[in-house]
Specification:
The complex is a heterodimer of chains A (about 80) and B (about 280). With about 80 residues, chain A is mostly helical. In chain A, about 55% of the residues lie in helices and about 0% in strands. In chain B, helix 11 (about 165-175) crosses helix 14 (about 205-230) and helix 14 crosses helix 15. The longest helix of chain B is centred in the last third of the chain and has 30 residues, at about 205-230. Classes of the chains: A mainly alpha (about 80), B mainly alpha (about 280).
């Protein structure tokens, strides 16, 4: 399990569409409105970012489900005849 | 820029710069629903559950509507605002959109367009009353006795390469509820009494329901056109009454041989008459 965690931690962050939008500094208008989220983007950008994140979240949940259901696999087996 | 604005921008940039906090930030912005729950209990009737269920449906089937609704939630939209935005958004995709969040709870909206034979029939369908007069049937009681004869009329009209014949088949199927399309064949009460379960929300079911509704709407348009033709075209009206009367009086008439429709409505499979005989 620790090895698995290390492997996952070593993965590069997924370049999500929404992240690039979030990393653009908020406009003064957004800040003045007390908004934590960008509003100066088009509806198409918003939908693309939402779709991308939903798909990413679903993939993550699916992977987590698969990982939670893994059965132990012996990495070494002492009975030489077993493959026969 | 004052200190508070400066602090907000600094915090925002700090959150967005680290992968873990950036992902949490992004989720809160665009897809916060899974943070709460990916199930809902709309049957409870609770407005919070109805809204949560509607948002889950949008997340699955109408992502653009979902993205818009979530942004409105961030800025304090009321239940009514969100209901309006969600129903209006769904109307771009659905042939028959819901008009409330309660309606979304029942699955993909279904609109029965069939006729209901009851006391209110004459007020609801005044244009159809002459047809029932020609069929000598009571529109408040239905067409059970005339049904076998109408079925034979449909058979005789089927495959005739004439627009009016197609329209007339649509009309006869509509009044007898025999088209094979649930939206055409069931009236409101019949449908709700039938026990047919509404379709769950999925892209496949939405496409199927749109197909059912658009086919039903086109079918009923053709049927209404047939009513207009029968009212305005004496030739077709007389042929319709004559053929119906003939079938009613003679039990064993072969519709293909004995029934005659106006010129140009010859059956496709019927051989052309030999002029030498």
């Amino acid at each position: 399990m620790p090895t698995l965690i290390l492997c996952i931690e070593d993965l590069a962050p997924v370049p999500l569409v929404g992240l690039s939008l979030l990393r653009q500094p908020l406009g003064l208008t957004d800040a003045a409105r007390g908004s934590w989220f960008p509003t100066d983007i088009t509806a198409e950008q918003l939908v693309a970012a939402a779709l991308d994140l939903i798909a990413y979240g679903d993939r993550c949940r699916e992977s987590a489900h698969k990982l939670s259901d893994l059965h132990p696999i012996p990495v070494s087996f002492s009975v030489a005849e077993y493959p026969l | 820029m004052n200190g508070l604005l400066s602090l907000l921008l600094t915090l925002q940039q700090g959150l967005a710069s680290q992968p873990t906090t950036a992902l949490a930030y992004l989720t809160a912005w665009l897809d916060p629903l899974p943070l709460r729950d990916l199930t809902a209990d709309p049957a409870s009737g609770d407005s919070d559950e109805l809204l949560h269920h509607a948002l889950l449906v949008c997340r699955e089937c109408f992502p653009a509507v979902y993205a818009d609704a979530i942004q409105r939630l961030h800025y304090g939209a009321t239940y009514r605002d969100l209901e309006g935005c969600i129903c209006a958004g769904m109307s771009h995709t659905l042939e028959i959109p819901p008009d409330t969040l309660d309606a979304i709870a029942y699955g993909v909206p279904f609109q029965p367009m069939g006729l209901a034979y009851d006391e209110e029939f004459p007020d609801r369908y005044p244009d159809l009353l002459p047809i029932f007069g020609w069929l000598e049937a009571d529109p408040t009681a239905g067409l059970e006795t005339a049904y076998p004869i109408i079925e034979r009329l449909i058979h005789s009209l089927t495959d005739l390469p004439h627009g009016t014949a197609v329209d007339l088949v649509a009309l006869l199927q509509w009044i007898t509820g025999s088209s094979g399309n649930t939206a055409i064949d069931f009236g409101d009460d019949d449908y709700w009494d039938s026990g047919i379960q509404p379709l769950d929300w999925s892209l496949e079911h939405i496409a199927l329901m749109n197909e059912i509704h658009s086919e039903a709407q086109a079918h009923i348009e053709r049927a209404k056109h047939a009513v207009k033709t029968l009212n305005e075209n004496a030739t077709w009206r007389q042929a319709f009454i004559r053929n119906y009367t003939l079938l009613k009086g003679v039990a064993r008439v072969d519709p293909d041989q004995r029934l005659r429709w106006p010129t140009g409505a010859r059956r496709r499979t019927e051989p052309t008459a030999d002029p030498t005989t």
